[in-house]
């Protein structure tokens, strides 16, 4: 993967170049952030012609290393106005890598809505005018019929076409379910370029081969064993990420009623355990599902209705937290139906869940009213005033409705963990260049380190910095978080490093992962500083500092001095 494909939509031309010296050795988030950091003016209009949309495969993509098919989508974000990377599973990154590309960089703007097809013969453009306004589910069916079942599709729905700030980029799985590069409004960037979909076909291409095959095989065996022996693995395989519902609720950090409570009375009814029992009674439901070929954890699921019709795949913890407990909705079918509408119109369930909760706080709809919430989400696609407001995410919605308690950092809704009880994660929310986001550096209590106290007002900067650095490296490799977390331990990490060096045929420098992660964070921070961010933007909303969170009574009381130390490497 020594090539980058440049797509000039203004001229409907593509060119293929060697990976430039300054981008060598990078992949995934590392590559997308370095390209955006170097080539997009920090003060550019995110929806203007100067912005670029990067689709990057991870360093390990296209190989047989498990769980390494995350696609990094990068650009300047219309939601945060800073640099952004959002990644998703599915099959696109593996195919991009097998076609020989580390990234596809989309530049300019097409005159009309356009479809880009990439295969072993190169790239072709066609008009997508007939697909205008089409939801992602219908779009996928149309493209499958036209291009066959061996493709992967990267697409936007009507929200991306309309430039809504919570618009996301969808990626198909090998069995054509939808995974989502959800955060930061990157679907609106794709829409601003008049790009409806990218169809990727790697027919006739081979997996990416390691330079040192024997060493690679040996390291791969050790790595797979380590991922499979992670103690949390069986819980994620059996219950999916909804396994977290009861755990985070028991910590008193499950966002409830727009982050005003830390425990939800209806938690059991939206838990992974409850969901799996429900699925046993429903035809075609799959409690365990792989979002990409080569996954050995299978944390995803296929959620169906009573008749066996697929509602959504997968129904994930973050969606359940933000659209469920945070809106006081204790009905999985309502949450799954909202999730489906979000996937179809192409928006982030987390920011939309946050927006519904602030709308409930403003009295626009009643707490716990799943029907009204679903109907409001449907308005996004109809482009009503309310739908457009919600589709622009939780900050825009809260400000329009005059709500004081808006749970966002840098314009992006927080994830489904209240930072008053998980203060290291609170520091990540505050300081990550990505805005409020758990994947940027999740810090949870760790049985292996009983000395770490997640509720302490001190000692939170170091774990946040460590995890932000580690996750920036994981995102650059193309690894999913479920497989990345077990690699924190030294022995599995040694196997991972061995795989990477066998792949490239070169020894890795000392502290490879740490240096990789730091270089990504430094690039992102530099971009955001130049875009106008200051330390004042690295703060949680005041209500987290002032309101005691029931039942623990915790407030977020990590000092500004400690918060500001995070990015001083
Ligand atoms: S563990 Fe989950 S997120 Fe990771 S590749 Fe498998 S299904 Fe996808």
Describe the structure.
With 569 residues, the chain is α+β, with helices and mostly antiparallel strands. The chain is globular. It has helices at residues 28-39, 92-98, 136-147, 158-162, 186-192, 213-228, 233-239, 244-250, 272-280, 317-324, 332-345, 349-361, 370-382, 385-391, 393-400, 423-431, 461-477, 481-484, 490-504, 512-531, 542-546, 560-564, and strands at residues 3-8, 13-18, 53-57, 71-76, 83-88, 101-107, 114-119, 122-127, 151-155, 169-172, 178-181, 195-201, 286-289, 300-304, 310-312, 408-409, 412-413. The model has no long low-confidence stretch (mean pLDDT 97). A hairpin with a 2-residue loop joins strand 7 and strand 8 (122-127). The longest helix has 20 residues, at 512-531. 39% of the residues lie in helices and 15% in strands. Helix 10 (317-324) packs parallel to helix 12 and helix 13 crosses helix 14. It has a 6-stranded mixed β-sheet with strand order 2-1-6-3-4-5. Strands 8-7-12-9-10-11 form a 6-stranded mixed β-sheet, sandwiched between helices. The site of iron/sulfur cluster has 13 residues, from helix 18.
């Amino acid at each position: 993967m020594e090539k980058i494909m440049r797509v000039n939509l203004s001229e409907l031309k593509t060119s293929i170049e060697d990976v430039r010296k300054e981008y060598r050795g990078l992949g995934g988030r590392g590559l997308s952030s370095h390209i955006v950091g170097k080539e997009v003016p920090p003060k550019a209009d995110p929806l203007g012609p100067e912005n670029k949309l990067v689709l990057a495969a991870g360093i390990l993509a296209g190989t047989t290393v498990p769980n390494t098919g995350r696609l990094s989508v990068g650009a300047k974000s219309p939601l945060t106005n800073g640099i952004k990377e959002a990644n998703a599973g599915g099959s696109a990154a593996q195919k991009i890598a097998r076609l020989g590309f580390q990234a596809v960089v989309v530049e300019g703007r097409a005159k009309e809505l356009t479809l880009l097809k990439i295969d072993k013969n190169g790239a072709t453009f066609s008009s997508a005018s007939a697909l205008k306004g089409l939801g992602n589910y219908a779009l996928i069916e149309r493209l499958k019929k036209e291009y066959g079942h061996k493709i992967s599709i990267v697409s936007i729905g009507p929200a991306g076409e309309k430039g809504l700030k919570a618009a996301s980029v969808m990626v198909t799985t090998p069995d054509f379910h939808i995974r989502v590069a959800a955060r930061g409004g990157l679907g609106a960037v794709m829409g601003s370029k008049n790009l409806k979909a990218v169809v990727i076909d790697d027919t006739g291409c081979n997996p990416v081969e390691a330079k040192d095959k024997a060493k690679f095989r040996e390291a791969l065996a050790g790595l797979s064993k380590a991922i499979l022996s992670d103690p949390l693995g069986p819980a994620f395989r059996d219950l999916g990420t909804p396994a977290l519902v009861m755990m985070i609720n028991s910590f008193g950090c499950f966002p409830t009623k727009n982050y005003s409570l830390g425990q939800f009375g209806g938690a059991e009814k939206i838990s992974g355990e409850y969901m799996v029992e429900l699925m046993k009674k429903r035809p075609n439901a799959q409690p365990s599902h792989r979002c990409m070929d080569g996954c050995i954890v299978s944390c995803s699921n296929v959620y169906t209705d009573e008749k066996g019709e697929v509602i959504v795949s997968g129904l994930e913890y973050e969606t359940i937290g933000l659209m469920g407990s945070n809106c006081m909705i204790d009905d999985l079918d309502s949450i799954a139906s909202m999730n489906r509408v979000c996937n179809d119109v192409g928006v982030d369930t987390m920011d939309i869940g946050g927006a519904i909760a602030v709308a409930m706080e403003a009295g626009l709809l009643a707490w716990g009213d799943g029907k009204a919430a679903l109907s409001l989400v449907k308005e996004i696609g109809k482009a009503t005033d309310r739908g457009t407001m919600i589709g622009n995410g939780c900050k825009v919605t809260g400000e329009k409705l005059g709500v004081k308690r808006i749970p966002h950092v840098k314009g992006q809704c927080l994830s489904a963990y209240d930072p008053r009880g998980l203060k290291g994660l609170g520091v990540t929310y505050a300081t990550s260049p990505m805005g409020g986001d758990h994947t940027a550096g999740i810090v949870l209590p760790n049985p292996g380190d009983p000395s770490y106290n997640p509720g302490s007002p001190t000692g939170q900067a170091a774990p946040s910095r460590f995890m932000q650095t580690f996750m920036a490296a994981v995102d650059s490799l193309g690894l999913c978080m479920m497989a990345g977390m077990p690699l924190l331990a030294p022995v599995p990490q040694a196997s991972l490093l061995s795989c990477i060096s066998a792949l490239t045929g070169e020894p890795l420098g000392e502290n490879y992962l740490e240096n990789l992660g730091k270089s990504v964070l430094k690039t992102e921070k530099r971009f955001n500083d130049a875009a106008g961010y200051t330390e004042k933007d690295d703060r949680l909303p005041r209500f987290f500092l002032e309101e005691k969170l029931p039942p623990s009574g915790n407030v977020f009381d990590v000092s500004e001095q400690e918060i500001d130390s995070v990015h001083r490497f």
